[in-house]
Amino acid sequence: MYNGLLHLHNFLRWIIIIFLLITIIQAFMKNAAVKKTSLWLVITAHLTLLLGLYQYFVGNFGYKLIQTNGFAAVMKDSAMRFWAVEHISGMIIAIILITVARSKSKKSAYSTTGLLCLLALIIILAVVPWPFREGIARPWFPGI
Ligand code: HEM
Ligand code: HEM
To answer: Is there an atom of ligand 1 within 6 Å of 99 CB?
Structure first.
């Protein structure tokens, strides 16, 4: 079951990135459709967060790294630091920005919505374990 949920977590990245791009374009075009897109964005982001928290506390690439190795050793190793600290904190910040952007879109604050989502996109791109990232590489698509 863990692997199936991990595959879902991997796949949802693409949905989030696509919804973020649409939200950013609609927000900067002051298109009221952004109110709907931002809702789908929040739903997928929160679902990914929930799956991520489960993985972090149940799997081998989260809290267990700190439990087994100690925090100091984790911080000195770039791969362990990525999983135990950088991925979770970067993603939680990005998801908070997405949630605030959604509430701004409901109030028709289009520019703020666009800027917050742009910031979230940059953070997400920086802390995804892309296949070209040494030591932490994960597949482009679930299982591939
Ligand atoms: C760790 C789990 C989760 C946390 C901590 C969390 C937290 C939050 C927070 C803080 C809000 C903002 C409430 C507000 O507008 O004041 C929110 C809204 C929302 N969340 Fe989550 N959530 C989680 C999981 C989920 C899941 C699994 C889903 C659905 C798949 C979901 C769907 C939504 C929706 C639809 C909204 C309302 C968006 C809106 O209409 O503005 N959340 N959540
Ligand atoms: C926008 C939000 C997020 C995106 C786009 C994202 C993306 C990814 C991707 C692409 C992977 C690799 C999956 C694979 O190996 O097939 C991954 C793994 C992982 N993510 Fe996330 N993630 C997000 C949020 C989170 C959050 C909030 C947490 C923690 C609370 C989290 C915890 C993890 C963990 C622990 C793994 C590794 C699990 C394992 O290999 O056992 N993720 N994430």
So the answer is: yes
